[in-house]
């Protein structure tokens, strides 16, 4: 009887260890797939908007990153006034069919950036109207 009660805690610890490993592997897979998504802008790789008239990139300013939109000729038209920590790189991705940029941030929450009729870009906090494919990247 004593042998079976001793096996119980070992089995439980082993099950917990395996479950924790599975969770960690899932988290790593999720992060790796997000980082590998070619639609995401980075410091090294700006990504063109669907119209091709703009590009988005992450611009480093000291220890912070600022999602930034530029025209095709390189003129900056919008930069996030809130810096994002290097340790938690935000996702910066265009919608597939519209020049709407999404900033997916664990620091400040999600936001969309749209161009108004007057030509200026404005950020709207929140995930309202977020396309499903972008919501999957936000996880």
Into which percent range does the helicity of residues fall?
25-40%
Largest sheet composition = 5 strands, antiparallel
Number of distinct beta strands: 9
SSE series: HEEEEEEEEEH
Mean pLDDT across residues:
80
Secondary structural class: alpha+beta
| Poorly predicted ranges | 1-34
Q: Tell me the strand percentage band.
A: 25-35%
Shape: globular
The number of helical segments is 2
Q: State the end-to-end CA separation.
A: 47 Å
Gyration radius from CA atoms, angstroms: 21 Å
Task: Explain what this protein looks like in three dimensions.
- This protein has 139 residues and is an alpha+beta fold.
- Helices cover 30% and strands 30% of the residues.
- The chain contains 2 helices and 9 strands, in the order H-E-E-E-E-E-E-E-E-E-H.
- It has helices at residues 2-36, 132-138, and strands at residues 47-48, 54-61, 64-71, 76-79, 84-85, 91-94, 101-104, 111-115, 121-125.
- The strands form 2 sheets. Strands 1, 2, 3, 4 and 5 form a 5-stranded antiparallel sheet that branches. Strands 6-7-8-9 form a 4-stranded antiparallel sheet, with helices on one face.
- Strand 8 (111-115) and strand 9 form a beta hairpin.
- The longest helix is centred in the first third of the chain and has 35 residues, at 2-36.
- It is globular, with a radius of gyration of 21 Å.
- Mean pLDDT is 80; it is low at 1-34.
């Amino acid at each position: 009887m004593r042998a079976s009660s001793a096996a119980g805690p070992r089995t439980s610890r082993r099950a917990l260890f395996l479950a924790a490993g599975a969770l960690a592997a899932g988290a790593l897979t999720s992060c790796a797939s997000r980082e590998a998504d070619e639609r995401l802008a980075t410091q090294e790789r700006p990504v063109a908007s669907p119209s091709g008239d703009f590009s988005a990139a992450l611009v480093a300013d000291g220890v912070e990153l600022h999602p930034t939109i530029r025209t095709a000729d390189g003129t900056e038209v919008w930069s996030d006034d809130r810096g994002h920590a290097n340790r938690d790189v935000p996702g910066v991705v265009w919608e597939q069919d519209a020049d709407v940029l999404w900033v997916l941030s664990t620091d400040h929450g999600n936001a969309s950036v749209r161009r108004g009729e007057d030509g200026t870009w404005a950020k709207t906090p929140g995930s309202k109207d977020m396309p499903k494919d972008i919501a999957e990247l936000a996880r």
